[in-house]
Amino acid sequence: MNKKIAIIPSIIIVVIIIGISQVNLEYIPEQTPEVEIVEEIENMIIMPIKSARPDCGPNDECYVPSYYVAKIDETVYWINEDSAFHSVTSGQQENPDGLFDSGHIDPDEKFSYTFTEPGVYSYYCTLHPWMNGMIKVER
After folding, report:
1. How far apart, in whole angstroms, are the C-alpha atoms of residue 100 and residue 4?
2. Is the pLDDT of residue 90 over 60?
3. How far apart, in whole angstroms, are the C-alpha atoms of residue 62 and residue 76?
4. How much is the pTM?
């Protein structure tokens, strides 16, 4: 009786080993994820994720960079990477100067403006008063 008990597990182990050896282990090449190459635009100002939240204001992280130096006749681009609508409006919150106004910029949309005169230009978001930036245009 003890010999039968010892033989049954041995037979089960042999069957398992044979079963495993018969499995077709097909080679599946590792898939390489596609990488999207994005051309970096030097004169791009980003409205990053969560810039619609008031806590981005004190750290100057609502427009990145919040201060940009441009040359005369240089076009500056703003891109909204946030999930909220934003705007780029010249002047101060209580005193827009009418030089440029993007209107509402949808997520993943861009706005651009070409600066033709030297000077310092403030801008802000009409929807989020803590979002402010500045462009200095030099010769």
Report:
1. 92
2. yes
3. 16
4. 0.69
